[in-house]
Design brief:
Layout lengths: L12 E13 L2 E7 L1 H6 L5 E5 L14 E4 L2 E3 L4 E7 L3 H6 L7 E8 L13 E6 L4 H12 L4 E7 L8 H5 L5 E5 L6 E2 L3 H9 L5 E5 L2 H11 L6 E4 L15 E3 L6 E3 H4 L2 E3 L8
Parallel strand pairs: 8-9, 8-12, 9-10, 10-11, 12-13
Antiparallel strand pairs: 1-2, 1-7, 2-6, 3-4, 3-7, 5-6, 13-16, 14-15
Helix pairs in contact: 5-6
Bound molecules: FE2/S2 (inorganic) cluster.
Length: 275
Amino acid sequence: MSLAETRRKGNWVQEAATVIAHEAQGDVFKLVLAAPEIALRATPGQFVEVRVVPVGSSSVDPLLRRPISICETRMAEGSISLIYRVVGRGTRALATAIPGTKLDLLGPLGHSFPNPAAGTGTLVLIGGGLGIPPMVGAAEWAVAAGRECVAIIGARSREYLAGGAELESVGLPVTVMTEDGSLGGRGLVTQPLQALLAAGRAGEVWACGPEGMLAAIKALTVPTGVPCFVSVERFMACGFGACIGCTVAKAGQSGYFKACQDGPVFPAEEVELGG
Ligand code: FES
């Protein structure tokens, strides 16, 4: 079985999840939910579709669910956490959910990152902006599997490093980069990646973040032969292949993948990434 084939596919359920905690830091929110069925099935890299109107409400507005990557999974406690930024009407409505509220979730959806136990060498986890939260669960998975791993996280400034504290608490070395130098090194996540690749210290790379960042990581990593997996960001209206609103062009051939079903995690060499 190839490394790519060890990605797990969502065996999703619909679950009424209860809000356990909901905290804000500026416009970034961390939502902890009791969702035992989803916690049992989730693997890092997968996401949930959240209906932002509470269960039992007669309102159907906003109608569309919001796709959010799973940050942490606590199988024993039956809970998951999500970190999101308020960017529009849907996330603004979600931000009002108080502990005890029930939210309708579909998940876990999509393909996960590959099994870290199946890879070799140092695993380099890279998160940019809101691509950092899914790397928290990825880091916990890799550390639990006994895999040596390091993380590189970046954003335009320190306020955009959502999930950075959670990642550092996993206990792996974390290099922080900000474009304005407000925290960590000044510059892009590709700088420390380039250094690791040049030194032969990267055995595998997993990345999640803006498409330009993923394209740059792919361009640096794929030619070296180091396995590279990217989690692409798309607005996923349905989450399970019905609306065809989340296409990703195939690399080197015609046609498209559906990010929600075939991804969101892909082997980097299989997808066309724009800047
Ligand atoms: Fe509907 Fe992917 S989100 S097909």
